[in-house]
Amino acid sequence: MKIKDENGVIIFFYIALVCHGMYFQREWIVLGGLFTAWAFFSRTVQFEEMSGNQYYRWIIIIVLGMAGLSLAGLAQSVIKSEGWLEGLRWLLFLFVFYFSYRAGLDIRARKKMIGKLLAAGIIVAAAGWLPGLDKIWIPSSGPEKDRLCSFWGYPNAAGIFFAVMLCLTESGEGKTTYRGINLKKCLQLLFAVSIAATGSRGSLLIFLFVFILFQGRQTLAKAPGRLKLPEVQKADLIPFIAAAFLIWQNWSLFLRAGGHFLAWPGASIGERLLYYRDGLEIAWLGHLLPQAGGWSLYPLVQQSEYLSTDPHSALIKVLVNQGIPGVLLLFGLSIIIGRQYFQAMSSGERERLALTGALSCLALHCMVDIDMAFGALGILFWILLGLNTGSYTVPVDSIQTYTNTKKNKIRDGV
What UniProt keywords apply to this chain's record, in alphabetical order (predicted)? Predict the structure, then answer.
């Protein structure tokens, strides 16, 4: 794989992060259009050259199917431009997955890409704590006001982003210590404290669920009946002291985030149920077939007045935009991720567990929030899926080389 392809995806991801997480339509059109054009005219794009992986083949079919269904929605469109934009989104995700998959084929390129994702996490977390950030990027408002959101402008998006980064720290990438200080522990505390400051209940609960599902099971399997506290060195206390200092300096922020954590989420759940009910009604009015810009009909079907540009669920959004065929494709994608989970658990490899855990966090959270409205989170999802899928692939060239070597050995009587 050429380095420029890997760097192209990472640079695009970094730019999307800085541009409000690539939430607004103009950012999708300008940034998404530029990246898709670059990828489309890249001479390195040859989808057929890596057709030996069954996951790869099916994911390509699913993404192309979603892009096709988005354009098919133009046949019964509410807003035609939304259909074209939705097609652009899926084409963009196709190229992001393709280049990430190619990186995943090579263990060194895969490790470098994970390291660059973690670097992005550090930048976003560090920037979130800078004073005056709300003067540059749009601050959160309403119920989300005065909670950590960094570049995103939406604490829940920031929360799940930090949860994904926290999962990736388990991949074992990079130098683990510096002058006795555990760098991995520093990153984990930075991301954990940042999740707490966002006040995102869903991000915290989903991360804990995935952690128990992955790490807890692995820990119990390795040391049944012998769990004990690790020895603590003086240098190990430094990350905790730094985290305590950060909390002390931003005490009022953590109080507000803590208040949101402890508040009963009845209003939030009720709002989402309204969105889902109206989304189902819109999909029914469209005969469960693709509709370009279908969610724009929500003011006509709502029984309680509200304003929302997104149904707060990737499943409902796909049902409205791509219809039942899109939901079936999404179900197929979930089966692939589920199979990767069981393979990761059986192999016990840290990198696969970290990638699959990060994928699971993002996939679960996007079912109950507007994650995929942020281009940066969508790009992150397809980068992770591409890297993880590539890790299960033996490149075709390697298979041919292995076969030729075996033939030569047999011919030579070895």
Answer: Membrane, Transmembrane, Transmembrane helix
